[in-house]
TrEMBL record:
Pfam family, any one: PP-binding
Protein name in the entry: Acyl carrier protein
Taxon lineage: Bacteria, Pseudomonadati, Verrucomicrobiota, Opitutia, Opitutales
Residue span, Carrier domain: 3-84
Record InterPro entries: ACP-like_sf (IPR036736), PP-bd_ACP (IPR009081)
Length: 91
């Protein structure tokens, strides 16, 4: 059964960053988000961080923390689970 948080993250990434010709199910859980892989730039990363902070009620306080959290969708899910109120996570 697919992980509902990972599915939601993929949906958010595709819709908020307006990734044309990319479907959420096309994104690999362990694919890098910044640089190679999805090739997001710093503006994309900032927009994604703001979206995640609003959606899950978390705070990403430094660029190092952001870089670690955005290493991949799987890393991002783990980061969110460790900081978010469980009631804000998809089921």
């Amino acid at each position: 059964m697919p992980d509902p948080l990972i599915a939601r993250l993929k949906e958010l990434i595709v819709t908020r960053l307006k990734l044309e010709d990319v479907r959420p199910e096309d994104l690999a859980d362990d694919e890098p988000l910044i640089g190679s892989g999805l090739n997001l730039d710093s503006i994309d990363a900032l927009e994604l961080v703001v979206t995640l902070e609003k959606e899950f009620g978390i705070k990403i306080s430094s660029s190092e923390e952001s870089r670690a959290a955005l290493a991949s969708i799987a890393h991002l899910a783990e980061f969110i689970r460790s900081r978010a109120d469980p009631s804000r996570l998809p089921r």
